[in-house]
C-alpha cells in the first residue's frame, strides 16, 4: 500500500490528497522552526506536493508548473470544512475522492518519488529540486507502484489485475527527438548554403574561360583592343564579385534570422508539450483478480504480485510470462508482500485471514506462519464487533465478515540477516502488534494499545516507529522500542509537525475497504426452500377447498 515512505534524506507522509515531505537531514533533537512566506523552497524542511499539480484545469497554469509545492500555512481550511459537512450529510466519503493518493514510492537512490492517485494517474518528482518530471495517465485505478533498482522504470499494478511499465522520466525521449530534429534541420541549412557557394564559384570559372577565349580573339585584332577589353573585363568581374558578396551576406543574415525564430518557436512548443507528453504503457503481466500489492527484488530479476484470490505469484522480470512459483497458503486476500531488507531471499506476506507467513518465494515454500488472533486481546476487538452487529441487523444486504479482523499493513525493520522486527496493524483494532523474526521462527514481543486505529506504520532510519492517527490529538506519533515496549518520543520533530499540520489529515486514505474485499457468501438453497414451502402450502389449501385452484399454465 505504501502511505508512508522513508528514504535516506526525506520522509513522505500521505495526508488525504497531499503528500507531506519532511527533510531528514539533521532532524534528530532539532526543533521545527516556522516556515516564513519569504523562505526559499530549496532550504525549507517541510514541503507539500498537492493534487493541483495534476488537476486538468491547472495543467496550463504557470503558477503550478513553477511552484510544484506549497507551504503548509497555505492549506485551504474551508475545503476541509466542506468535506466534513458533506460526510456528515450523507455525502461521499474521502475514500472515494478522486484526488486521494493510493501509494507513494521512492527510488532506492532517493532521487525520485512516484505518487499514484485514484484519479488514474501517476506523478514522478525529482527529489533534488522537487520539480515534477512527468505525469503518466493510467487506464484503471492504481493499487500499488514500484520502481526498479536502476531508477529507469515505474511499475504500476491496477485494480483489473494488470501490471504496466512506464519510463520513470517519461518526457525525456520526446526531448531527445526534438533536439535531433533541430540538429538535422541545421545540417540541412548548412548544405543549402554550401550548394549556393559552389554554384557561384562555377559561374566565376565559366566567366573566366569565356574571357580567355575572347582574349585570344582580341590578340589577333591588335594590342589596343586587347588592352581595352582586359580593362572592361576586369571592371565587370570586380563589380560582379562585389554584387555576389553583398547578395550572399544578405541571404545569410535572412537565413540566420529565420532559423533563430523558427528554433525559438520549436523550443517554446517543446516546453509546452513537455508537461503532457503521453507515454504508451507496456503490459508486463496480468492476474484474473484485483492486484493489491507488488514488490521487485533488488537485482530486478523477479517481480512478486499478490491478488484478491489468495495467490502470490513470483515471475521473472522483465519477461514476466515466465512464472517461477506460486506461494499458496493464505485463505483470504493477500494485502501486502515485502522482501526482508537484509535478506532478499525471504518474503513476508499478510492476509485478510489474520495471518503472517514467511516464504522462500523462489521455491514457493512456507517457512513459518503466525496467526495474530492468538496474540490479540479480546477487549481490543470492540470496534470490529460493533460493525459485525450492525451487519447482522441489516435486512437489505448482509456482508460476509469473518470472526476475526484481517491484517491491514505491516512494516519490517532488519537488525541483521536473520533477525527482524515486524510492526502489524489489524483492521479496526486500536493497537500495534510487534513480532520478532528469528528465521525461520516468529515470536510476539508486545501488543501496544492506542487511542484509535493507526492508519499506517513505518520504521524511520534512526530506528523509531512512526504511525499516523486521524482522530488522535497527535496526528503523527513516533515511538521507540525500549525493553520490549513501545515508548512515545514526545520531542520528535515529526510529532510537532503533525500538530501544526493537523488540517491536512482530514479523511486520510488508509487502503481499500476490507468489507468489499471479502468474498460474499449467498445462501441460495434457503431461499429456494422458502419458496417451495410456500408453493406446497398453496397447493394443499386448494385441494382442501380453502382457496380457488388456479391454472399453472397452458397444459395444466
From TrEMBL:
Keyword Nucleus: yes
UniProt cross-references to InterPro entries, sorted A to Z: Trm82, WD40/YVTN_repeat-like_dom_sf, WD40_repeat_dom_sf, WD40_rpt
Keyword Nucleus tagged: yes
WD repeat residue numbers: 327-369
Major localization listed first in the record, in broad terms: nucleus
Classification via Pfam families: WD40
Signal peptide: none
Gene Ontology biological-process annotations: RNA (guanine-N7)-methylation; tRNA modification
Basic and acidic residues: compositionally biased ranges: 172-192, 199-276
Keywords (A to Z) from UniProt: Nucleus, Repeat, tRNA processing, WD repeat
One of the record's GO cellular component terms: tRNA methyltransferase complex
Subcellular location: Nucleus
Region entry Disordered, spans: 164-281
Self-association state and partner proteins as the record states: Forms a heterodimer with the catalytic subunit Mettl1. Interacts with mei-P26 and weakly interacts with bgcn; required for the function or formation of the mei-P26-bgcn-bam-sxl complex. Interacts with nanos; may be involved in mei-P26-dependent derepression of the BMP signaling pathway. Interacts with Myc; the interaction may be mediated by mei-P26 and may be involved in the regulation of ribosome biogenesis.
Record function comment: Required for the Mettl1-dependent formation of N(7)-methylguanine at position 46 (m7G46) in tRNA. In the Mettl1-wuho methyltransferase complex, it is required to stabilize and induce conformational changes of the catalytic subunit. Required for binding of nanos mRNA and repression of translation by the mei-P26-bgcn-bam-sxl complex. May cooperate with mei-P26 and nanos to derepress the BMP signaling pathway. May cooperate with mei-P26 to suppress expression of a subset of microRNAs. May cooperate with mei-P26 to regulate bam expression levels in germline cells during gametogenesis.
Protein name (database record): tRNA (guanine-N(7)-)-methyltransferase non-catalytic subunit
Provenance organism: Cherax quadricarinatus (Australian red claw crayfish)
Amino acid at each position: 500500500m505504501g502511505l508512508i515512505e522513508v528514504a535516506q534524506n526525506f520522509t513522505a507522509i500521505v495526508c488525504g490528497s497531499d503528500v507531506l515531505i519532511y527533510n531528514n537531514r539533521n532532524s534528530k533533537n532539532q526543533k521545527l522552526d516556522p516556515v516564513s512566506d519569504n523562505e526559499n523552497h530549496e532550504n525549507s524542511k517541510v514541503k507539500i506536493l498537492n493534487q493541483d499539480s495534476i488537476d486538468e484545469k491547472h495543467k496550463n497554469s504557470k503558477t503550478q508548473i513553477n511552484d510544484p509545492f506549497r507551504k503548509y500555512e497555505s492549506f485551504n481550511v474551508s475545503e476541509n470544512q466542506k468535506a466534513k459537512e458533506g460526510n456528515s450529510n450523507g455525502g461521499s466519503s474521502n475514500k472515494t475522492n478522486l484526488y486521494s493518493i493510493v501509494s507513494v514510492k521512492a527510488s532506492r537512490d532517493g532521487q525520485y518519488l512516484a505518487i499514484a492517485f485514484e484519479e488514474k494517474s501517476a506523478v514522478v518528482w525529482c527529489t533534488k529540486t522537487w520539480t515534477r518530471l512527468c505525469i503518466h495517465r493510467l487506464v484503471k485505478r492504481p493499487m500499488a507502484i514500484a520502481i526498479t533498482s536502476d531508477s529507469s522504470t515505474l511499475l504500476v499494478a491496477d485494480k483489473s489485475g494488470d501490471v504496466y511499465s512506464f519510463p520513470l522520466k517519461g518526457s525525456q525521449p520526446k526531448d531527445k527527438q526534438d533536439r535531433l530534429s533541430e540538429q538535422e534541420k541545421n545540417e540541412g541549412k548548412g548544405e543549402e548554403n554550401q550548394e549556393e557557394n559552389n554554384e557561384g564559384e562555377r559561374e566565376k570559372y565559366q566567366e573566366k574561360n569565356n574571357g580567355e577565349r575572347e582574349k585570344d580573339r582580341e590578340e589577333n585584332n591588335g594590342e589596343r583592343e586587347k588592352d581595352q577589353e582586359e580593362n572592361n573585363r576586369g571592371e565587370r568581374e570586380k563589380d560582379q564579385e562585389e554584387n555576389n558578396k553583398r547578395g550572399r551576406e544578405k541571404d545569410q543574415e535572412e537565413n540566420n534570422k529565420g532559423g533563430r525564430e523558427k528554433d525559438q518557436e520549436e523550443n517554446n512548443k517543446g516546453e509546452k508539450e513537455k508537461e503532457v507528453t503521453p507515454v504508451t504503457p507496456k503490459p508486463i503481466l496480468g492476474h484474473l483478480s484485483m492486484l493489491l500489492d507488488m514488490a521487485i527484488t533488488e537485482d530486478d530479476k523477479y517481480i512478486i504480485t499478490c491478488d484478491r484470490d489468495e495467490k502470490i505469484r513470483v515471475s521473472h522480470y522483465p519477461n514476466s510470462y515466465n512464472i517461477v512459483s506460486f506461494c499458496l497458503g493464505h485463505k483470504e486476500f493477500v494485502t501486502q508482500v515485502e522482501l526482508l531488507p537484509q535478506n532478499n531471499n525471504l518474503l513476508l506476506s499478510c492476509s485478510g485471514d489474520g495471518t503472517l507467513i514467511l516464504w522462500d518465494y523462489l521455491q514457493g515454500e512456507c517457512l513459518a506462519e503466525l496467526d495474530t488472533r492468538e496474540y490479540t486481546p479480546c477487549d481490543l476487538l470492540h470496534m470490529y464487533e460493533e460493525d459485525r452487529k450492525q451487519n447482522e441487523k441489516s435486512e437489505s444486504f448482509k456482508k460476509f465478515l469473518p470472526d476475526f479482523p484481517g491484517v491491514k499493513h505491516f512494516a519490517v525493520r532488519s537488525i541483521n540477516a536473520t533477525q527482524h522486527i515486524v510492526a502489524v496493524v489489524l483492521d479496526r483494532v486500536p493497537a500495534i502488534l510487534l513480532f520478532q523474526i528469528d528465521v525461520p521462527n516468529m515470536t510476539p514481543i508486545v501488543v501496544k494499545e492506542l487511542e484509535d486505529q493507526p492508519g499506517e506504520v513505518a520504521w524511520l532510519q534512526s530506528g523509531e516507529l512512526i504511525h499516523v492517527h486521524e482522530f488522535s490529538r497527535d496526528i503523527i506519533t513516533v515511538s521507540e522500542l525500549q525493553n520490549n515496549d513501545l515508548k512515545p518520543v514526545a520531542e520528535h520533530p515529526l510529532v510537532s509537525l503533525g500538530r501544526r499540520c493537523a488540517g491536512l489529515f482530514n479523511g486520510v486514505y488508509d487502503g481499500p475497504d476490507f468489507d468489499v474485499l471479502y468474498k460474499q457468501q449467498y445462501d441460495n438453497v434457503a431461499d429456494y426452500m422458502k419458496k417451495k414451502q410456500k408453493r406446497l402450502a398453496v397447493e394443499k389449501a386448494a385441494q382442501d377447498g380453502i382457496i380457488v385452484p388456479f391454472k399453472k399454465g397452458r397444459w395444466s
